[in-house]
Amino acid sequence: MKVVVVGCTHAGIAAVTQIFKAHPDTEVTIYERNDNVSFLSCGISLYLNGDVKRLEDMFYASPEDLEKQGATVRTQHDVLSVDTKAHQLTAQNMVTKEVFTDTYDKLIMTTGSYVVVPPLMGIDDSRVLLCKSYEQAKQLYKAAKVHKHIAIVGGGYVGVKLAEAYADTKHEVTLMQSHDQVLNNYVGPLISGKITELLKTHGVHVLLNEKVQAFHGNDQTDNILIETSKGEHKADLAIVSTGFMANTGLLQGQVDMDRHGAILVNEYEQTSNADVYAAGDACISHFNPAGNDAYIPLATNAVRQGALAGMNIFGEVQKDMGTQATSAMELFGYTLATSGLTLNAAKKEGLDATSVIYEGNYRPSYMPTTDLLTIELVYNRKNRQVLGAQLFSKHEVSQSANAISICIQNKNTIDDLAFVDMLFQPHYDEPFNYLNLVAQLAIEQERQTNQVK
């Protein structure tokens, strides 16, 4: 069987690796526009603040690695069109400009996503940069060496991590967010407020409810003027990080997509065309806590979906279990870890949801040291199922988000979480683990509510 993989970052690498693991005789051809594969864009901030010394270390595989497995790797090749009825594609060698056609039996689309570029005046100014690819990361690093004041447009995951990176390197940083809180897709107002204060403590100017409307200036001026819904701000450099869109133009009109252009796939990563599969940022994921399909561009989803696509092109081998969109970030020595729905998101989904807050030490106060921990647990009041949680502490709480993810995956209730077996050792937690304790608070909240009724 001949398999063509278009795009080769997380999902593409996972698909190819899985194919050769179980079916080493498969003919696999990879098309990739860049001269590299497997770039970890989530690690750009680590390079910008100096934690990672060489940007090249953010690659975990090379074209040569894939060729050793048996793949034909065509980097710097742009796929111009795909004809799913003819099982054929047209590509161009970006170096020689040669245009040619190729055929396939099965096609795996792992074309990823691109940074949303808002249609603003001045967005094409040379001092307005984006943050995703290897080349963009090099631009950011070079530009920061000669620019002191950096404005970041967008207070999501990428924007907040960039703000930290530049604050750590003694830049003046302004973070502009059109919403009333940072990380609005990840956390509720309480924890978002704590993160905002943490950013401010480290010198970041956080501007909320301030939507960027235009960039003014030219290459001869010393700075760029950023016009917002509330006024004007000067900076030496602006970085736009306002989200991502699925890169799926090649299959437009040929497979089913959602209204945003993300490819719809079934639980085997198969599109509406039986011979076309998709994985990663190019397609939707099944979002378990909401019970629907959603666009969730995370590396974890890409790797899992890519591996499953590599299995399932040979038959319905393994179903995709869906995702809880579990993620974490380290920020100025604190850990933020999340899984599932925020309270606001749960209510938007029409769920009868509420939340409870736990604030306390992660381990007994008689220990030589301890750290405060904040947890917001979101649950469904009708069936008491856990819908999501956010944890924030100097203590490393990322694995607790994984535990919450399993709870959501398995449709566990607050009653299950309150008394599930968890270890106790004074070095690590209280006799009841903090996840037990926040669930017990939820049970008590429901008991009191029902008493009032």
What profile does the largest beta sheet have? 5 strands, parallel
Q: What strand order characterises the main sheet? A: 3-2-1-7-18
Quantity of strands, as a count:
25
The chain-level structural class is: alpha/beta
Global shape? globular
Please, what is the average pLDDT?
Answer: 96
From the alpha carbons, calculate the radius of gyration and give it in angstroms. Answer: 24 Å
Distance between the termini: 64 Å
Q: Tell me roughly what share of residues is in helical segments.
A: 25-40%
Report low-confidence residues grouped into runs of 5 or more: none
* Number of distinct helices: 11
Q: How much of the sequence is in beta strands?
A: 25-35%
Please name the defining characteristics of this protein.
5-stranded parallel beta sheet
Question: Overview of this structure, please?
Answer:
The chain is of the alpha/beta class and 453 residues long. It is 26% helix and 27% strand. The protein has eleven helices and 25 strands. The chain has a five-stranded parallel beta sheet, with helices on one face. A five-stranded parallel beta sheet has the order 9-16-10-11-12. Strands 21-22-25-24-23 form a five-stranded antiparallel beta sheet, with helices on both faces. The longest helix has 19 residues, at 434-452.
In short:
This protein has 453 residues and is an alpha/beta fold. It has helices spanning 10-22, 44-48, 63-69, 134-146, 157-168, 189-201, 299-312, 343-348, 398-409, 414-419, 434-452, and strands at residues 2-6, 27-32, 72-75, 77-83, 88-93, 99-103, 106-109, 113-115, 128-130, 149-153, 172-176, 205-207, 212-216, 224-228, 232-235, 237-240, 244-246, 276-278, 285-287, 292-294, 327-331, 334-340, 353-361, 372-380, 386-393.
